[in-house]
């Protein structure tokens, strides 16, 4: 491989190695956090939910007590279908 290309490839491989190390360190930190969090353990008990997705769900919910009803939480999560129709330009704006 010519010199400029081989130097760029070497730099890219070094960067890839650094990113890989950073990802591993982050996964270790997340792994220790999820083992200690009751909410993450509970969500992880749901079928099909692994440790990473359970951590994302708990972070997104940010305290289930902020939802006054289970329906509000389901709606926030996008689990409740809704219909939205704009009346502007539809000839129905009276």
Report the total helices.
Answer: 4
- The SSE string, one letter per element, is HHHH
Based on DSSP secondary structure assignment, what is the total number of beta strands?
0
Shape: flat
Q: Radius of gyration in whole Å, from Cα?
A: 23 Å
End-to-end Cα distance: 72 Å
Task: Name the beta content range.
Answer: under 5%
Average of pLDDT: 85
Class from secondary-structure proportions: mainly alpha
The helix content, as a percent range, equals: 55-70%
Largest sheet: none
Low-confidence segments: none
Can you put this structure into words, describing what you see?
It is a single chain. The chain is mostly helical and 94 residues long. It has four helices and no strands. It has helices at 3-36, 38-44, 51-61, 70-76. Helix 2 crosses helix 3. The longest helix has 34 residues, at 3-36.
Record the SSE blueprint.
Blueprint: H1 3-36, H2 38-44, H3 51-61, H4 70-76
Search tags:
94 residues; 4 helices; single chain; flat
Summarize the structure.
By secondary structure, this protein is mostly helical. The chain has helices spanning 3-36, 38-44, 51-61, 70-76.
């Amino acid at each position: 491989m010519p010199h400029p290309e081989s130097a760029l490839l070497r730099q890219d491989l070094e960067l890839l190695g650094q990113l890989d190390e950073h990802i591993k360190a982050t996964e270790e930190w997340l792994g220790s956090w999820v083992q200690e969090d009751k909410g993450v353990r509970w969500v992880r008990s749901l079928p099909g939910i692994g440790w990473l997705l359970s951590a994302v769900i708990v972070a997104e919910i940010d305290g289930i007590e902020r939802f006054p009803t289970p329906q509000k939480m389901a709606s926030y999560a996008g689990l409740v279908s809704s219909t939205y129709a704009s009346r502007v330009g539809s000839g129905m704006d009276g």
